[in-house]
Design goal:
This protein is mainly alpha-helical and 113 residues long. It has one domain. It is 42% helix and 7% strand. The chain contains four helices and two strands. It has a two-stranded parallel sheet with strand order 1-2. Helix 2 links the parallel strand 1 and strand 2. The longest helix is centred in the middle third of the chain and has 20 residues. The relative contact order is 0.18.
Length: 113
């Protein structure tokens, strides 16, 4: 998920990783490992997958204002790193949106563009 957020931000598209709080430790570890600890992420109360529509709506309502604030803030990712530093790190990530990346390319059996 953190790869996706950085790839989208790199393209100038605001992005926030919306994650279950049960996976907070993993998300923080992955962001730190990628040296992108300031990448935008927002945690929703677990569980998510087996919830009723009403429960999901309540969870969405609980985070909506924070999500909106994260998506509309001035972009300086990660942290206050210069854009060149962000681009250098992001350039090493698989380009999952073009169909040629490591996770989605034809060599991985994924969908290609």
């Amino acid at each position: 998920m953190m790869h996706d957020v950085i790839a989208l931000e790199r393209r100038g598209l605001p992005a926030v990783a919306l994650l279950s709080d049960a996976f907070e430790a993993q998300a923080l570890y992955q962001a730190a490992a990628l040296k992108l600890s300031a990448a935008s992420r927002l945690f929703v109360k677990h569980p998510v997958s087996d919830q009723s529509n009403a429960a999901l709506e309540a969870k969405a309502d609980a985070v909506f204002d924070r999500l909106h604030a994260l998506l509309t803030r001035e972009r300086t990712l990660p942290g206050d790193a210069p854009r060149a530093a962000v681009d250098a790190v992001a350039a090493e990530l698989p380009d999952v949106f073009s169909g040629g990346g490591a996770c989605c390319g034809s060599d991985a059996g994924g969908v290609t563009s």
